[in-house]
């Protein structure tokens, strides 16, 4: 059963068609990477799935039409990890994780022992428990990214949506976030994850499926093993090459090679 089902999704904004007839399914245990050039519609697709932009077509979460779900119900199924560059809320990682419990709380509920245990395990999963009381504004980029992931984990949803989780991170922090995402993927829980990224090697390393958008359309939907330089060249309109090494390999635009 799909956690997220998108059928004939079309989004128009500012008099332009941003997404056209997009079809997509996310099943439990799938890690779906959405790649594509600037302006292809990746973030808009994530927003449409979260019910944050008006659209035509059908989006269903856990088989229930998005249009019939309240924001609180959506928040029980799907959690968004935004880019830290979109602004840091004036709270600590602990407070952010507590706030993320909102979809599950009644009007007069405080945070009980069970919820606190969940919040603690989310902060520990991203190795941020020690920094739980440091204001978000004082954290490094990697720490802030991990705090956003912890808040999404504390929300305890079946689906995580990540918008460019490694953008603006240095290499060490990119590796940290990749390790965390690989760990989440391999835990064998029934969670599904969708990540928009510019980093094709991150997509190939982490995803169980890769979808490419170009000018608002899905131009490719396949497993990472079936994606090579030729396919990426046609998506990004630059020539890609594969670099192989006994330790592994990667795919790079030829013009960026030394
Ligand atoms: N609110 C809006 N009104 C009008 N146009 C918009 C709006 N939001 C996004 N767009 C346009 O939609 C297109 C797709 O934007 P989107 O941010 O989804 O692309 P993206 O693939 O995530 O791009 P990038 O890789 O640069 O982040 C862009 O041309 C953008 O200018």
TrEMBL record:
This is ABC transporter related protein. One of its GO terms (molecular function) is ATP hydrolysis activity. InterPro entries: AAA+_ATPase, ABC_transporter-like_ATP-bd, ABC_transporter-like_CS, P-loop_NTPase. PROSITE patterns: ABC_TRANSPORTER_1 (PS00211), ABC_TRANSPORTER_2 (PS50893). Gene3D superfamilies: P-loop containing nucleotide triphosphate hydrolases. Residues 4-240 form the ABC transporter domain. It comes from Thermanaerovibrio acidaminovorans (strain ATCC 49978 / DSM 6589 / Su883) (Selenomonas acidaminovorans). PANTHER family: ABC TRANSPORTER ATP-BINDING PROTEIN, HEMIN IMPORT ATP-BINDING PROTEIN HMUV. Keywords: ATP-binding, Nucleotide-binding. The keyword Amino-acid biosynthesis does not apply.
